[in-house]
């Protein structure tokens, strides 16, 4: 600690991201990255931006990323989403951070699940936002009937992380109607792997903000592009905070790469379906090995073995060059979150787990 720190810094408990090991030849199944490369159109678009010796890089990017916002609005044309209803940022983490400041900082505490994305309590601490956690059910699902307290806003991932459990749109709509005076932020980082997006509800509910990322289903975790969709007054609030902080959150390469990724719907669909197929194959293989596996609509599964300690399994997998995520937290300390990798990676994981859990 330093006497030069601002008072809030002393109170912070920073977010701890998944390990990014420097070792080679690892089967990396701990941070929910896509096992497939981005669309070839992305690489071509970035190469085009770098043409002519990269001279465009001496110029600032479009502060409003109009080309990208137009591409996102077109992607959701069936729901009549207009460009002014789209906000973009440097990854969905930045979009979420701005939403906490712009839309969730009120006198009443905000509500989110007790088992959820661990950045939510970090943002609450950073912006000094009071919060209450709402316990998941015994089946690790969100129960909207439990979100009855007066609040300054509600936020949750759908599918939830790290459980992978999906909340249907009917339940989300019930929540929106129950709390018309509160903003409800639905964090859909994993929605493309098995759920129906709440973007379909945006034009029917003024209090709904839906946040997406291109890190997962579009294979662009290294490019850092996220966005939010909501009615115009919510987007204006995000813009006001963003322009009080950083007018240029997305660089030129990120903008053109993201536009290209969104345009290549055929590639997106093929890799998305491949991951869903691999997820179900892995789920069935782990069930056969005696694991309990939660139903998942994400690009990961949440599992436990009734006869083996999760921390020990994670450590022994690591010794074999396979990394998964283990959270040492109440209620889930005996679970592992396993990213869906390629079929080859999943096969190596199953082989290792078979050796570890099968009685000798």
What can you tell me about this protein's structure?
- The chain has 360 residues and is an alpha/beta fold.
- It has two domains: 19-38 and 266-357, Aspartate Aminotransferase, domain 1 (Alpha-Beta Complex), CATH 3.90.1150.10; 40-263, Aspartate Aminotransferase, domain 2, CATH 3.40.640.
- The protein is 37% helix and 14% strand.
- The chain contains twelve helices and twelve strands.
- It has helices spanning 7-11, 40-49, 51-54, 66-75, 91-103, 119-126, 169-178, 232-242, 252-263, 265-288, 310-319, 343-357, and strands spanning 27-29, 86-89, 110-113, 131-134, 154-157, 184-187, 208-213, 226-230, 292-293, 300-304, 322-326, 336-339.
- The strands form three sheets. A five-stranded mixed beta sheet has the order 1-11-12-10-9, sandwiched between helices. A five-stranded mixed beta sheet has the order 2-8-7-6-5. Strands 3-4 form a two-stranded parallel ribbon.
- Helix 2 packs antiparallel against helix 9 (252-263) and helix 5 (91-103) packs across helix 8 (232-242).
- The protein is globular.
């Amino acid at each position: 600690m330093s006497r030069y720190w601002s008072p809030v810094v002393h109170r912070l408990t920073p977010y701890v991201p998944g390990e990014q090991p420097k070792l080679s030849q690892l089967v990396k199944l701990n941070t929910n990255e896509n096992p497939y490369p981005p669309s070839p159109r992305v690489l071509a678009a970035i190469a085009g931006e770098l043409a002519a010796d990269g001279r465009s890089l001496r110029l600032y990017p479009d502060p409003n990323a109009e080309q990208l916002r137009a591409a996102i609005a077109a992607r959701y044309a069936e729901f009549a989403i207009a460009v002014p209803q789209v906000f973009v940022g440097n990854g969905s983490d930045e979009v979420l951070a701005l939403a906490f400041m712009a839309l969730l900082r009120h006198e009443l505490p905000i509500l989110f699940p007790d088992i959820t994305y661990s950045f939510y309590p970090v943002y609450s601490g950073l912006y000094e936002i009071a919060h209450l956690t709402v316990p998941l059910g015994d089946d690790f699902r969100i129960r909207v009937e439990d979100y009855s307290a007066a609040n300054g806003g509600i936020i949750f991932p759908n599918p939830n992380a790290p459980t992978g459990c999906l909340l249907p749109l009917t339940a989300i709509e019930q929540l929106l109607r129950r709390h018309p005076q509160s903003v409800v932020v639905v964090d859909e980082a994993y929605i493309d792997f098995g759920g129906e997006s709440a973007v379909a509800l945006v034009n029917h509910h003024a209090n709904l903000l839906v946040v997406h990322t291109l890190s997962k289903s579009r294979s662009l975790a290294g490019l850092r592009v996220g966005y939010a969709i909501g009615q115009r007054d919510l987007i204006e609030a995000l813009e006001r905070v963003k322009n009080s902080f950083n007018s240029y959150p997305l660089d030129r390469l990120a903008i053109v790469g993201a536009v290209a990724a969104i345009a290549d719907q055929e590639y997106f669909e093929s890799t998305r379906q491949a991951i869903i197929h691999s997820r179900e194959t892995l789920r069935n293989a782990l069930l056969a090995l005696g694991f309990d596996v939660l139903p998942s609509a994400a690009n990961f599964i949440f599992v436990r073995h009734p006869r083996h300690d999760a921390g020990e399994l994670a450590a022994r997998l690591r010794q074999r060059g396979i990394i998964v995520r283990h959270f040492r937290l109440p209620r889930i300390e005996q679970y592992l979150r396993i990213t869906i990798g390629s079929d080859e990676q999943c096969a190596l994981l199953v082989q290792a787990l078979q050796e570890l859990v099968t009685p000798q």
